[in-house]
Structures are given as C-alpha cells and as structure tokens.
Amino acid sequence: MQKRNFLNEEAPANYVAGLGRGATGFTTRSDIGPAREGPSEEAIKAALTRRAEQLGQAPPTAYGAKEKKDDNDDDDADRYQDPENEVGLFASGAYDEEDDEADRIYQSVDERMEKRRKQRREAREAAEREEYERKNPKIQAQFADLKRAMGEITDDEWANIPEVGDLTGKNRKARQNLRQRFYAVPDSVIAGAVGAGAFDTSIAADEDGTMTGVQTGGGDSQDGTMTNFADIGAAKNKVLQVHLDKAATGGTESVLGTSSTIDPKGYLTSLNKSVIGKSEAEVGDIKRVRLLLDSVIKTNPNHAPGWIAAARLEELAGKMVQARSIIARGCQQCPKNEDVWLESMRLNETQNAKIIVANAVRENPKYVRLWVEAMKLESDPRAKKKVIRKALDLIPNSVVLWKEAVKLEEDPNDAKVLLARAVELIPLSVELWLALARLETPENAQAILNKARKAIPTSHEIWLAAARLQEQTSGKVTVMKRAVHALANEQAMPKREEWIAEAEKCEEEGAVLTCQAIIQETLGWGLDEDDDRKQIWMEDAQSSINRGRFETARAIYACALRVFYEKKSLWRAAADLEKNHGTKEALWQLLEKAVEACPSSEVMWMMLAKEKWTSGHIDDARLVLAKAFHQNPNNEDIWLAAVKLETSSGNYPQASDLLATARTEAGTARVWIKSVAFERLRGNIPAALELVDAALQKYPKADKLWMMKGQIFQAENKLPPAREAYALGTKACPHSVPLWLLAARLEEQAGVLVKARSVLDRARLAVPKNPDLWCESVRVERRAGNLPQAKQLMAKALQECPHSGLLWSESIQHLEPRTQRKPRLVEAMRKVDNDPILFVTVARNFWQERKLDKALSWFEKAIVADADRGDTWAWYMKFLLQHGTEEKRGEVVGKCVAVEPRHGEVWQGVAKDPRNVGKGVEEVLGLVMEKLE
C-alpha cells in the first residue's frame, strides 16, 4: 500500500493545531451554526407572571409589572436630587445681592487658595527638576563653561587648532598589540646568550695535536642535564646593565636590536627645527584642513576668520606666496574688517605693507589699530607724527592715538600742548589728565587736577594724585578726608581692600605720607562696631607684613590702636613689627606708649626694660623697672626681671637685696626658687640650703625645690642626704617625672643598679604611660650592658607608648642593627606624627648613609616642627661642622640666637648648670654639641 505524503494525510481525531506548543482552542460561529432569535420581552414577562402566581408571590417589577408604592417614595426621591438644583427647603428662597456677594467671596477664596497651591506645586516641581538636573546634567550643561571660554579664543588660536586626523588604524594597531602574548625567556637561552657574539682568544689542543679555539659561553652541558646558575645570574645582570646604559645614554640602538631615533638631549631642538609637511600624515592633515577652509571661504566669502585661517595654513605649510594671495582676496571680500588687513600687513614685507595699510585706512578710516600699525611701519619720526596727526583729525576721541602722539614728542612743552588738547576733546580719560599733571609744575598740576576732579568726580585715582602732589609740595596730606566724602557722595567709594592695595602701591613708590593718610581715612570703611574690627585689622596688617609692606602695616596698627587703645594684643603685634622690621628708637617709643596705655601689663614693662638693657642703657632699664614696680607692686615677673638685670650687670648685693624684698612682698614659689638658684650661683651653699629648707616649709609641693636640694647635696658628693631629699620629694610630689629621674640617676651614679631599677618601677606605677620614665629604664639597662633586658623593656614601652618619638628614636639608634634601622624608621613615621626627636633620628640615619641632602632636609624639618628644642639645633650644627659652609653655619647660629631655645634633654642640663650661668646662646650651643652622642 502506497503511503501518503505526511502533509496530505488527515489529522487525527481530537487534533487541535498548536496544542502541543501551548496554543488554546476557541469556538467560532461556524462551529455552532447560525444564531437564532430569542424570546421577546412580552413573552418573558408573561412567563415570569405565571411563575409568580404558581408560587403565590407578587410578580417581579423588572419587566414593567405594577407594584405598590409607599407614601415615602417622594421623600426618597428628593434625597437623590441634584444639590445644585435648589428645591424643597430652598425652593421658596430669594437669591439676593448678599448671596451673590458671598458666592463671589467664596469663589475668590477658592481661586486664591488654588493659586497658592499652584505656586507651591510649581516651586516644588522646579526644585525637584533642578535637583534632578544637577544630579543628571545634560551634555550641554557639562560643557557650558568650556563653550563660554571659547568666546575668548583669538583668531590665531582658532587657526592653530590641530586636525584630529584618522586614528582608526592607530587604534587597530594598539588593540593588536594588546592581544599579543609575551613569554618569559628560559634560563637556558639566557645562559647561552652570555657569550654570544664574543671572540674567544683561548687556545686548546685536540687529540691529534692541532690547536683550536675553545668556545666559551653557556654553563649548561649539551644534554641540558646541568645548569650553571652563576652564569645565569651574570647574564641577567648583563642584560639589566645594558638596559640601564641605553636608558641613561639614549643610545640609538635598543636592547632588542631595533633602532631608536630619539635623542633625549636634542629632542626639543629637533622639534623646533622640524619642517611641517614632511611626513605623509602631516601632508594629509594639511590637505584636509585646506579643503575645509576652501569650503568655508566659498560658502561664506564675507567671513573674515576663514580667510585668515586659510592664509595661516599656507604660511605653516611654507607657501608664503599662496598665503599672501589668499589674504589679498580676503581683503577684497571683507574690506571693512580690520583683522584681515592686519593679517595681510603681517604676511607682507614692509614696503608692500605700507601700500596695504594705505588701502586699509582708506576703506576703514575710523579704525585705531590700523592707524597705529601704519605709524609703526614708518621709520622716520616725522612720518610717524604725520600719520598720527592725520589719524587724530579723523578720530579725535581716541585715547590710544593721543598717547601714541605724546610718546613721539621729545619736547615736554609739545607734549603738554598735545595733552591739553587731548583733555579738552576727551575729558573723561583719567590717564590723559594724570599725564598732563605730571608734566606741569606743582602749581599748574594742582589746577589741572582740580579740573580733572570736576570732569570725573567718580575717579579716586585723581584724588590719590592730588594727595601725592600735596605730599611733595607741603610735606603733609590733608586731602584724603575730602576725597572720602566726595567719593561717598558720588557713590563711587572703592572697597576697603582696594584702598589698602592703593596704600601699598604708594608705599612701594615712596609716598609714605599718602599711604598713611589712605589707611587713616579708609581703614574702617564698611565695618560696623558689631564686626570684629580688631581681628580684621590685625589680619590686614599681617597680610601687608607678609607682602613686605611694613609702612602700610605700621599705619594699620596705628589706626587700630587709636580705636582699641587698651588692647594688649595690638600693642604686642605692633611691637613685634618694630622689633623685626623697625629701628630701636621706634620700638622704644612704641613700648613707652604701650606701658602708658596698659600699665598693668608686666610683659610690656619687661619688653621695654629688656630692649634698654640689651642696648647697653642699664640705668634706663632700672628706671623702667622702677616704674613697673610702682604700677605692679607685687608682680613676681618684674621682681625677677630686676634681679636678672642686676645679676647680669654683676651687681650681686643689689640683686640679693631685691630678692630679699621680693620674698617679703611677693613671696611666691618661683621667687624662692630664684633665690636658692642665686645663692647657689654665688657659691653660698649654706645660705642656699637654708633658703631651700625655709621654702619647703611654705611650699612642700614645689618639686623644683626638692630637686634643687638634692642637686646641691649631690654636687657636694653627699649622697645620703641627696637620696633622702629625693625620697621625700617623690613622696610629696609623686607625679613629678624629673624628680623620679634624678632619684634614679643618683642610684645609678652610686652604682646601685637594683635601687635605680626599683625607683623607676615605682615611678612608672605613679606616672603610668610616661615615655621619659620608660626611656630612662631602657637606658639604665643599656648603660649596664644588659641589651636583652633593654630590648625587652623597650618592647613593653612601645606597647604602652606607641606614639612616642623619644622611645622610637632610642630603639632605632641604640637597640637596632644598622641594617634594620631604615624599616624601623618607616614604621615609626607611620605611628608618630610630626615629632622633632624622630625627625632628628631620621636625619642622623641619612647622615650615616652619606645622603647629605636628605639629612639637611630632615634637620630643617625638625627645626620647623619645634624651634624651642635646643638639642635639635646642636645636632644640626654638628652636622654643618662636617658638611656645611661657613655661611650656612653662621646663618643657623644667628637663627638659634634669635629663637633662644630653652628645652631639650641635653640643652636644659647644660644651660642650667651653675657653671654656665651668664653664658650666651652660642656658647651653650657649643657645649651641648660636645655632650651629644
């Protein structure tokens, strides 16, 4: 039986097309046959009525059967009536004018509320839109600032914008390079290349007796079973050395064998000498730009920048003839554009340029730049004057032309005539008025400036010129007050900062009185009493000092002190200015005014006394201190200053009497301490011990008194009473670290290390987490030669005080091997922030490694971090003695003397030694340098 084709077979029973792939079946009219008409409405009603009678029920009302109505049906119907249709209760009401007015009021209220809601909604929507645009800016908004900046681009910059060029091939090559794979060269290849290309000069004998050259090179055997790692390392070093040599010398042959045309020394020079248009890429770029510019000038021949760009392109390509031809056609197409004419003059020679400028001014007689260029093309001064005067006939209101005309005049009288005519024609030009005033005599200049003020009442430059003229003629300046009132009335008053700038300019030009007058009249302009005027003026003065304008700063301080007469900070700042940048006489005068204004300020009295004393006026210093005593009778600072003055001058009896009086009238702990130190300095040990005992009766908590008592006994080699003094002191002052250190060092000096350790252990319990005590414990063990114990203590110390530069420096400098110091320094710098002790350690490490520049830099960082630390200055000078110049050493010593450091571990011990009392800073610096280790 022949099998039918699959497509022609009948479908199986119950087959639904597409059911296997999720399709659902549906029924159409063809499946159920044509539609039939249903029962009518009357038949349905009749059927329902019969059904209701059989059931004994009332017939339904849905199909028009009658139903009973209640009396309340009308009321129910009224409930659902239209509220706008007033019936029932309001049917009989009359709609009068009041109702109309009420409706209008309600309507206006609704409209107003709707308007307010609309405004709020619009504001909210605008804020949301602005926030969305800020977070999601458009491309146009992102480049808005760049588009605005493009408006300032000149024609030259437009013409010099380079063409992007076709980068598709270049990008394709870059992608191909990225897809390349690189493999490491095996060691056997490197070892085999050690002697490649080298000639062997050694001779070896074969078995037959002939002499042959021995080939040397790789260390591997022929079968590869043996590798010579020494040769491999040598080969790698050789390759690395070749790389470094080529990179340093810029050789023309690279390591990989490819040639390099880059000369590092002459690269920029070769760029300057390169000729545009030689490479194919540059030729293509020029051709593309030429086509673009040709299209520009053809489509818009009246567009001047297009002609200029086309001419400059030919100029860059080296085709000057074509460039001149193009710009000539541009002049014909754009005869009213001065830029085209100026470009044509630039591209042509002088003679041709004169012809071009003649045509240009003929076409554009009102363009100033063309006349100026025409004047510059002339070589004869008379021809220049002729051109300028012809230009002035055509453009008499040009300030530029009048200035050029005045410059050409050699006789001042002719220049004055020109300027007089110029100010008549251009009365609003400040420059011309000022130039004319400078050429006139002082009397005529004053009259000219008066006319200028009437012509330009809003110009402050004319008022400043009048003030400077007044300073030159009369030696005083009174016109600035009138200037301020006049400018204020004209509402042309500059800002306060602008006046300060004008004052600094006058100071720079030597008009000091004008500078002071400007500051006096304008410093408070725009500032109210509620503003912090004192702070603002101090900042202004400091800014002027930073710019080197000391007279301006002096005037600012003077003006501020007239307002804040009793402010000590202002007097101090003014005194510092005079001390650093003024004369001694000016400083004395200022300090005398300061003590009159602030008689209770002991600092001012002491500054004045010190300045008198350092200048050699001892009697004047005594007189100042006597006045200070009268104003501050119980001030310990003034008493001690007087004692120091008498001690320095060698008048010990007077100093002793002053101290005795001070102990009676101002018997503070500090006065007693100075009294003990004075007697100790004189060598009167019994008196010193008597005074220290009496002082301890009054001030048992003064740790310095206990330290001085122990030091006196220790200097006399009386260790038991010294030990007792320290013991009592540590009980009375358990938190005094220097006292604990002295007690421990006494036991170490006596050779009793066990007691020294015990003292330091008790000290660390009394004052926990103190780096000085931990460092002393480590040093005790280190000096005893017990390095393992010292390292163990240092580890504990760094756990308790991880941010101590002192501990890190001690550990790195004395407990670490030299090879481990650098990584430990890096770790310390991460944990310690801006510590001068650690900075010195870093500098010393670089010093040991002979990296002198870095050592110098770190020493200076340490000085900047804390200039009051004397040990830093001593280490710096010790370094400069070996590696510095005489000039640098003198500079550092001068700075150290000016700073007068008072702190430092070694510095304090040397400076407070009774044997060094009276020595200057430079002498103490030398002694500290000797003790450093």
From TrEMBL:
GO BP terms, alphabetized: spliceosomal tri-snRNP complex assembly
SMART domains: HAT
Superkingdom of origin organism: Eukaryota
Compartments, record wording: Nucleus
Residue ranges that the Swiss-Prot or TrEMBL entry lists as coiled coil: 106-149
Main subcellular location of this protein, as a coarse class: nucleus
PRP1 splicing factor N-terminal domain ranges (all copies): 11-170
Quaternary data: Associated with the spliceosome.
PANTHER family: PRE-MRNA SPLICING FACTOR, PRE-MRNA-PROCESSING FACTOR 6
Protein name: PRP1 splicing factor N-terminal domain-containing protein
